[in-house]
Amino acid sequence: MNRRSLHRLAAVTAVAALVLPATACGGSDDPAPGAPATVVLGFSAWPGWFPWQVAQEQGLFAKNGVTVELKYFDSYTDSLTALATGNLSANSQTLGDTLTSISGGAQQTIVLVNDNSTGNDQIIAKPGINTVADLKGKRVAVEQGTVDHYLLLLALKTAGLTEADIALKPMLTDAGAAAFTTGEVDAVGAFAPFTTTALGLAGSKAIATSADFPGAIPDHLVFTAAFVKDHPTEVQAVVKTWFDTLAWIKANPDAAIDIMAKKAGVSAADYKSYDAGTTIFTREQNLAAFTPGSTPANLDFQAKSIAEFMVSAKLVDSAPPLDGLLEPKFVQAVSP
Q1: Between 248 and 6, whose confidence is greater?
Q2: pLDDT for the residue numbered 21
Q3: Of the listed ranges 20-24, 44-48, 52-56, the one predicted with least confidence
Q4: Whole-number Å distance between alpha carbons of 177 and 250
Q5: Could you give the CA distance from residue 275 to residue 277 in angstroms, rounded to a whole number?
Q6: N or C: where does the chain have the smaller number of CB atoms within 10 Å of the terminal CB?
Q7: What is the tens place of the pLDDT at every residue in 74-93?
Q8: Closest CA to 169 of 155, 154, 183
């Protein structure tokens, strides 16, 4: 599982405009604008996205009058590619990955905040390293261009350091976690469940987490811009289903956890251990996030911040256009 990468779509999205006309979700075989349409919705392994499985198994999409073909991806990157090339109507993905797709030419619209990472992304250090400031001169493994790379830079900045002050060791997240446990590196940036692997090193601990930077790592439901334009009724029904699903989960917590844990391939106890590190967003939290502002809690501010990171890390040549990225009207239309 390789979730939350900011840089893997460059080649795909650069040719998205060429392949979209021939794809299932953006091509000539699509229903006419306004006609009923099936929503092909992708998601992958992250606690904030497993509620979609609950929605499917409990028939909540159908209750809202929308036909949804739910597609689970073992590879998160594959789900990003599928949306960028028009083979999905919508996907659950990070803000950073959405910006990367847009940089490559894809036209996508965020209609819902699924969650914020509030601890499940971590900078984990070996014994003897107790603060971020202690990372100076140390070997730190992180997958370049990921949100955990972004988290590392945020943490370094708060400690008065930059990436130049550490010995960065670019590694895939799973490899980095493994290298940390064998002493190959002194610290690692990772997300759950690879945090569990890293913390298997005796005496290791998280010295910074996404909980320290509220709003820095948001996850969303993202539609192709064309689908939003042509089929707003279906988009509205899917957004309403999300909040209906959260209500069902609240009323049936044990049954919901069993459904989500089974899909995740972990025990119910293991799944519960990830709950605190992922904050599922209510309608009220969605409304607050979509409100323009100048804090990390505001999506427009966070999008600009991540775009600047992408340019500074040389992941893109120029900041992606943000016009039309955020569309709050579907959340606003859901009854409280």
Answers
A1: 248
A2: 38
A3: 20-24
A4: 34
A5: 5
A6: C
A7: 878 889 899 999 999 999 99
A8: 183
The model's confidence at residue 24, banded by pLDDT at 50, 70 and 90, is very low
Looking at 46-201, list the stretches that DSSP marks H as alpha helix, in order from N- to C-terminal side: 51-57, 60-63, 76-84, 95-103, 147-158, 173-181, 194-198
Residue 86 CA to residue 137 CA, distance in Å, equals 44
> CA-to-CA distance for 189 and 324, rounded, in angstroms?
32
- Joined together, the tokens standing for residue 11 give 């080649």
Provide the edge-to-edge strand list for the sheet that holds 139-142.
167-170, 139-142, 187-191, 121-125, 205-209
DSSP code of 319? P
pLDDT of residue 310: 83
Q: Is 279 helix (H, G, I), strand (E, B) or coil?
A: strand
Spatial distance between the Cα atoms of 164 and 256, rounded to a whole number of angstroms = 45
Cα–Cα distance, 100 to 315 (Å, whole number): 8
Burial per residue of 25-44, b for 16 or more beta-carbon CB atoms within 10 angstroms, e otherwise = bbeeebeeeeeebbbbbbbb
10-116+216-332 is a CATH 3.30.1240.10 domain: no
What pLDDT, on the 0 to 100 scale, is given for residue 210? 94
3-state helix, strand, coil in the chain (%, to 5): 45, 20, 35
Write down the pTM of the prediction. Answer: 0.82
Give CA separation, 258 vs 57, 70, 101, 132, 222, in Å.
Answer: 12, 19, 34, 37, 26
DSSP classification of residue 282: -
Highest CATH level, class, for 121-212? alpha beta
- Domain range summary for the chain, segments of one domain joined by +: 10-116+216-332, 121-212
Q: What angle do the packed helices 299-312 and 95-103 form, to 10 degrees?
A: 60
* Per-residue pLDDT, 247: 98
* Amino acid, res. 250: K
pLDDT digits (tens, 9 = 90+) for 182-212: 999 999 999 887 898 999 999 999 999 999 9
